[in-house]
Amino acid sequence: WAVCISKVTAHAQTASRNEVDNYLAEPALGHQLGPLDLWKKTRDRYPRLVVLVCRYLCIIMNSVTCERIFSKMGLVVTDRRTSL
Fold it and tell me: Which residues of 11-26 are buried (b: 16+ CB within 10 A; e: fewer)?
């Protein structure tokens, strides 16, 4: 089984690497499409990359959690907080 598993793993790594190389070789689309629209359009060509994209595009970008932690710690106005 070890030989079979190593061949499958090597194939998956090669396919993933080829997918990344193909994506990087494409010309940049500029700002014509938003990130979600771009990946909806290209998800069939890059099925492995779209898994990562879905994971990272769903992250909400805000500082609410960080602000809440600093407030609970009583660090309302400090040099450390203002440097975030």
Answer: eeeeeeeebeeeeeee
- Per DSSP, the three-state class of 50 is helix
Short-list 39, 41, 46, 40, CA closest to 19: 46
- Crossing angle of helices 2-25/47-57, nearest 10°? 70
Q: How far is CA 50 from CA 2, 13, 36, in A?
A: 29, 16, 10
- Only one residue has tokens 């600093």, namely 70
pLDDT tens-place string over residues 23-51: 889 887 767 778 888 888 888 999 988 88
Domain assignment of residue 62, given as a range: 2-82
The pLDDT, as a whole number, for residue 55 is 81
Total number of domains constituting the chain: 1
